[in-house]
């Protein structure tokens, strides 16, 4: 059976392997695209080890994104189901409890295994939730907290290739794992005008909630797993095709029609061995001809030279532009007039004089004797009152002068500290950027920058965006250019290989794997996948990775699957460059603010 997998890419690939092993042919078309949430990853450091009783994990994606954002592996895991529990084991966790596959089952498991008095239950999840796990746990006195580690963007339309295959009845069934994906599939089927053609397909649903969201869409049959887990769902599938060879006449009369159809070596197809051999020879000739056409005028030395030259210029201009900006900015700061040192000596002299005057007045007051009968005593009393007022005024002036001195000294210290910090950030960012030009890991350089960026929300956010790639590194521009050769071959080969042709398809795959197939990079006006590859290659050669990604994302079906690994690497490189550019602009603004204070 040809089965449509609608799960996100990371979940779809292991499922596709299981289906192939069972004799089915998976067709991948993710309805959701998973993206990390940097803010949520940054919030994890606010939760101390001793405060967390257990991690609640309601999806394998939640587990994977936690493992990428946080190195702690000693927490107890409460997983919604076996698949999520397996993701936790792969991430390195040891203490794992698995529920029955839904939120209700997870809530019950938590109530059985956890204690409301022993700390927070931290739910690592996506931006959208199924069920009210928070309400169910807080009702029983548990402390619940949630961190959003990823979001899932819905696919906006079915690909042209997929719509054609559904209309032609080439898709036998679709696997639906969540209410959101079943709703999305129904919406896209209506939008693409293929809802009437779904009568030829069977919908395999993980739960009643998933099946319920298909209301209004008529399938050949809707089957629901007995329990909400993948193992139960896969038991709904019929046995796949087998490739065992049978000798002529060996089939027993009791063999079913399904068994006869599943065996490709029976005479039911009406082709003799000679006919098959002739068809195989024809396919080989066609494949070689296609390879010869696609490989004409390719990879001449002049093209290689131009591509390397263009890439070198782009990289050099990029780093020189950055260093030139820094140099100019530093020169401007050095030319600015530094704040003149404050000469506090006159103030100190004045304070000393005032204190001397106050002391003399206090001595004079103490020496005066007041007589009740003397007429002059009244005048002396008036003089004493006036002296006391003057004394109070002078004391207040001394206090004000001391406060002004303190403020001036603090301002000078603060300015020197801010300037030193900004310049240290410039040096650290420059080091990080140099490493990012290569494909090397940059964990140490990023850690140094993170230490300097503490307390600066903008820089901390940019640093968090780079952390997932720090250990493994990112594909350099040179590596992306080189790897595009392989990607382009795979894409064009995917176009040349027909789908659904059984042993013919396999023959073509075996032959084309030995032939280098490429589209001519000069054919920029071509249509279809070949034209897309040509334009993408042209953009890569000119250093415009973003434009190349835009071209390749218009591919569909097998060509898009072939292009996806290169697209993922290129997007990661562009995201990193954007984070570095944001940090550069922010640090320059910090330098500007420091200079302006002078």
Shape: extended
N-end to C-end Cα span: 75 Å
Kindly report the spatial arrangement of strands forming the biggest sheet. 3-8-7-4-5-6
How much helix, percentage-wise, in residues? 55-70%
Largest sheet: 6 strands, mixed
Radius of gyration: 37 Å
Structural class: alpha/beta
- Number of helices in the DSSP assignment: 22
**Total strand count, please?**
11
Proportion of beta-strand residues? 5-15%
Ranges where pLDDT stays below 50 over 5 or more residues in a row are 243-274, 290-320, 369-376, 409-417, 512-517
> If you average the pLDDT, what whole number results?
75
Keywords for this structure?
598 residues, alpha/beta, six-stranded mixed beta sheet, five-stranded parallel beta sheet, 22 helices, 11 strands, 59% helix
Give an overview of the whole structure.
Helix content is 59%, strand content 9%. With 598 residues, it is an alpha/beta fold. The protein has a six-stranded mixed beta sheet with strand order 3-8-7-4-5-6, with helices on both faces. The protein has a five-stranded parallel beta sheet with strand order 2-1-9-10-11. Helix 4 links the parallel strand 5 (77-79) and strand 6 (96-98). The longest helix has 61 residues, at 376-436. Mean pLDDT is 75; it is low at 243-274, 290-320, 369-376, 409-417 and 512-517.
């Amino acid at each position: 059976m040809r089965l449509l997998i609608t799960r996100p890419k990371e979940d779809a690939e292991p499922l596709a392997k299981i289906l192939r092993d069972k004799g089915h042919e998976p067709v991948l078309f993710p309805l959701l695209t998973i993206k990390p949430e940097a803010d949520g990853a940054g919030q994890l450091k606010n939760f101390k080890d001793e405060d967390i009783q257990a991690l609640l994990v309601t999806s394998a994606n939640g587990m994977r994104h936690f493992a990428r954002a946080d190195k702690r592996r000693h927490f107890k895991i409460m997983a919604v189901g076996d698949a999520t529990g397996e993701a936790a084991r792969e991430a390195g966790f040891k203490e794992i409890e698995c529920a029955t596959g839904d939120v209700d089952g997870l809530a019950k498991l938590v109530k059985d295994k956890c204690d409301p008095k022993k700390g927070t239950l931290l739910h690592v999840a996506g931006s959208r939730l199924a069920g009210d796990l928070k309400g169910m746990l807080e009702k029983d006195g548990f402390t619940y907290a949630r961190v959003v580690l990823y979001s899932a963007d819905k696919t906006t339309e079915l690909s042209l290739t997929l719509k054609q295959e559904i209309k032609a009845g080439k898709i036998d069934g679709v696997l639906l794992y969540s209410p959101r994906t079943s709703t999305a599939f129904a919406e896209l089927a209506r939008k693409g005008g293929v809802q009437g053609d779904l009568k030829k397909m069977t919908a395999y649903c993980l739960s009643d909630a998933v099946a319920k969201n298909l209301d209004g869409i008529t399938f050949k049959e809707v089957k629901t797993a007995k329990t909400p887990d993948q193992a139960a769902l896969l038991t709904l599938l019929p046995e796949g095709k087998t490739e065992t060879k049978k000798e002529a006449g060996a089939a027993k009369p009791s063999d079913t029609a399904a068994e006869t159809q599943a065996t490709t070596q029976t005479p039911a197809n009406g082709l003799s061995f000679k006919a098959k051999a002739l068809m195989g020879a024809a396919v080989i000739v066609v494949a070689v001809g296609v390879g010869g056409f696609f490989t004409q005028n390719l990879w001449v030395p002049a093209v290689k030279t131009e591509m390397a030259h263009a890439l070198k210029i782009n990289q050099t201009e990029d780093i020189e532009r950055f260093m030139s900006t820094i140099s100019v900015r530093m020169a401007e700061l050095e030319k600015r007039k530094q704040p003149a040192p404050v000469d506090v000596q006159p103030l100190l002299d004045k304070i000393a004089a005032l204190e001397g005057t106050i002391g003399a007045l206090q001595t004079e007051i103490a020496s005066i004797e007041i007589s009740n009968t003397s007429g002059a005593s009244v005048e002396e009393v008036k003089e004493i009152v006036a002296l006391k007022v003057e004394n109070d005024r002078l004391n207040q002036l001394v206090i004000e002068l001391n406060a002004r001195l303190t403020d001036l000294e603090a301002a000078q210290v603060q300015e020197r500290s801010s300037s030193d910090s900004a310049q240290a950030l410039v040096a650290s960012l420059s080091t990080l950027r140099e490493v990012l030009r290569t494909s090397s890991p940059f964990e140490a350089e990023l850690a140094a920058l993170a230490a300097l960026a503490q307390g600066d929300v903008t820089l901390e956010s940019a640093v968090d965006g780079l952390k997932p790639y720090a250990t493994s590194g990112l594909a350099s521009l040179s590596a992306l250019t080189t790897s595009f050769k392989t990607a382009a071959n795979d894409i064009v080969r995917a176009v040349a290989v027909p789908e659904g042709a059984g042993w013919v398809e396999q023959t073509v795959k075996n032959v084309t794997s030995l032939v280098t197939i490429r589209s001519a990079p000069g054919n920029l006006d071509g249509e279809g996948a070949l034209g897309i590859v040509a334009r993408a290659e042209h953009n890569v050669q000119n250093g415009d990775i973003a434009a190349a990604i835009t071209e390749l994302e218009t591919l569909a079906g097998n060509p898009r699957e072939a292009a996806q690994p290169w697209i993922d690497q290129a997007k990661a490189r562009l995201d990193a460059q954007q984070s570095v550019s944001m940090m550069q602009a922010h640090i320059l603004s910090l330098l500007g603010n420091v200079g302006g204070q002078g």
